Amino acid sequence: VTIEEVFMSRRTHRRAFVDLPFRLSTHHPAWRPGLRALADQILHPGRNPFWRRQSGSFFLARRGGRTVGRMAVLDPGSIPDAADAAVLAFPDFEDDGAVFTALLDAVERRACERGAGSVLGPLNPDLHHDVGVLVRGHELRNAAFMGYQPSYYRRHFEGAGFAGWSDFHAWGLYREWFNAEGRLQRLAQRVERDPRVRIRALDLSRYDDELRLFHRL
Fold first, then answer.
1. Dihedral (C-alpha) 131, 32, 26, 164: value to the nearest 10 degrees?
2. I want to staple 120 with a disulfide (CB 3.0 to 4.6 A). Which of 85, 111, 135, 201 is the partner?
3. Taking Cα atoms as reference points, which of 13, 24, 7, 18 lies closest to residue 99?
4. In angstroms, what CA-CA distances link 6 with 44, 106, 110?
């Protein structure tokens, strides 16, 4: 296994970094990595304002010319409750201890060089995106903007000494559940009767204005 540092300002490097989870997900029917264009935009230093205030290092693991893992580390200072912690980000890898160990070694070395006292994550790249490692619910599809990690991710992280820092729960609400729950229906009906409240559909002819309103809310 060889580790190569890559740079998100280079299109070919960014494409290789983005492509890996899409390839890995073909072996896990519940995993929906999302849109390639969005994944590219998140990592693009010229298109994502996040990178104006945060710097990081990105690594690919290769074996025989094939990409088998990726991982990034962001410089410390971005987490208020852990000011000396570097952020581990975008970890994806085949179920191979040598691949995971090589990537983690590269990340930890760079974190030490940047003065970090610990490594915390995954945040991809921060709390406004998908976070953590999935530990339950692997049989369920991940929702939009929610991450998914095969069960072996947890085994490798815990084997390397990582422990839980915070729990994050994702909840699904389905139409059939909503219709079966009387209290939810009564609450919705009360809102609909309130003359101060109007419910309308998104107006796609005013997409930019609607998006700005949605973002503000």
1. 20
2. 85
3. 24
4. 13, 12, 13
Q: What's the whole-number mean pLDDT along residues 85-104?
A: 97
CA–CA separation, 102 and 66 (whole Å): 15
Encoded amino acid at 60, one letter: L
pTM of the model as a whole: 0.82
Distance CA 9, CA 140 (A): 35
Element (H, E) at 103: helix 97-113
Residue 59 has a CB neighbour count (10 Å cut-off) of 22
Strands 56-63 and 85-93: unpaired
Contact 16, 103 (CB under 8 A): no
Distance CA 17, CA 14 (A): 5
107-136 pLDDT, tens digit per residue, is 999 999 999 999 999 999 998 899 999 999
